[in-house]
Amino acid sequence: YAVQTPCGHNFCLKCFQKWIGQGKRTCAKCRHQIPPKMASQPRINSALVTAIRMAKLSKLNVAAGSSKVYHFVHNQDRPDKAFTTERAQKSGKANAASGKIFVTVPPDHFGPIMAENDPERNQGVLVGECWEDRLECRQWGAHLPHVAGIAGQSDYGAQSVALSGGYEDDEDHGEWFLYTG
Length: 181
Description:
By secondary structure, this protein is an alpha+beta fold.
């Protein structure tokens, strides 16, 4: 089972119990305080448990010879991180290149990003994965637009939503946020 801490990080139940058993009362990733009730009664992340089960089924389907065809962006020569070229620096532009794209999904993709979409790590995007910034979200296919807070179209829905920092009444609560505008 997967356990989610109040700060939004996920750990396997046995690892979490071992950590707490050692007398540690902070998140192993960010050192955010873990309340005593959470330490004694860990919150199971059912969405992550479901995603893990789906990923296992997906691997079985691939092993059984699934007929799906996946297309990948061939960009092995690009650096892993976003960067600014000399030319862009001279003209005052911020991000001239967003770095390597690690997974490839169509712009109207809904649902999990499976291992088949991730040719290097072969694990896809896991529930609870965190990224440093929006460019990194784009590299992993979780939120494709560089600037827009909503990815999607009015006729088929939104694939993802990210805080854009443009509205003063947006609320960021770590695990969830309120987006307005």
